[in-house]
Amino acid sequence: MFGLNRAKKTAAVIAATAAAAATALLSAPTAVAAPQPIVGGTTTTTTTYPFMMQITDASQNQFCGGTLVSATKVVTAAHCMVGETTSSVRVVGGRTYLNGTNGTVARVSKIWINPSYTDATNGDDVAVLTLSTSMPYTTASYVSSSQTGVYAAGTTARIIGWGTTSENGSSSNQLRTATVPTVSDTSCRSSYGSDYVATDMVCAGYTSGGVDTCQGDSGGPLLIGGVLAGITSWGEGCAEAGYPGVYTRLTTFSSLVTTQVNS
Ligand code: ARG
């Protein structure tokens, strides 16, 4: 497993230097998993999750997710924004289907990437986008720094995204969602070793796998009790037994995010 983790880190470094869509791909190719019906979820809509944003390139091709936390602020993953500029990205709200043309497209006037970010497996995987124009959608609230209890092992968390529906599959045209239980730090550390930074990350998934975020879901929300508590960050493959998804532990970065939201 550590060999795979090293391969993944290498892939992340390569991806970080590549173009928009490539920055979304963190995992190196691994053994092909059986196709699983995000993996293991169900279809949903941006009417149900109005704060769910597509992060796209200038041609409106989605490569990451984001969460609208105020009319002009979107929380996403730092690894999604590496190599991007305010002119290379768009945020699209109210568009359930990747091939849709509806909803609201906003330009980005500022990209804040957590200055401590280096690689998703080192933590600090959070970014905040400032939109040039307001999104007319209901926002999500996010955890405050004191709400560390929300991650108690076994708590039901909701994941949402347009990412691939199997480890080496293709993206979902329609938005998908699933629920996964949070995983204890001890358990996640035994899966990922020192790549799991408990202060900055939280894991979620079933021991047997089968339900997970996957490539293209990054930057999107992990909701606990309907509140943004995590950001889709990385994992070994997708939905593999013994390898839960890893999410940014937002309580750690809540104050930093608030500074950006109020800026
Ligand atoms: N890094 C991926 C992305 O950029 C997300 C991977 C999530 N992987 C997982 N097994 N939960 O879209």
What does this structure look like?
This protein folds into 2 domains: 23-45 and 142-251, Trypsin-like serine proteases (Thrombin, subunit H, Beta Barrel); 52-139 and 254-261, Thrombin, subunit H (Beta Barrel), CATH 2.40.10. The protein has helices at 2-17, 20-23, 78-81, 185-192, 250-261; strands spanning 42-43, 52-57, 62-70, 73-76, 89-93, 104-113, 127-131, 156-161, 176-183, 201-204, 221-224, 227-234, 245-249. With 263 residues, the chain is an alpha+beta fold. The chain is globular. The longest helix has 16 residues, at 2-17. Strand 3 (62-70) and strand 4 form a beta hairpin. The model is unreliable at 1-37 (pLDDT under 50). The N and C termini lie far apart (42 Å). The chain has a 6-stranded antiparallel beta barrel. It has a 6-stranded antiparallel barrel with strand order 2-3-4-7-6-5. Bound molecules: arginine. The site of arginine has 15 residues, from strand 12. Keywords: Disulfide bond, Hydrolase, Protease, Serine protease, Signal. It comes from Streptomyces pseudovenezuelae.
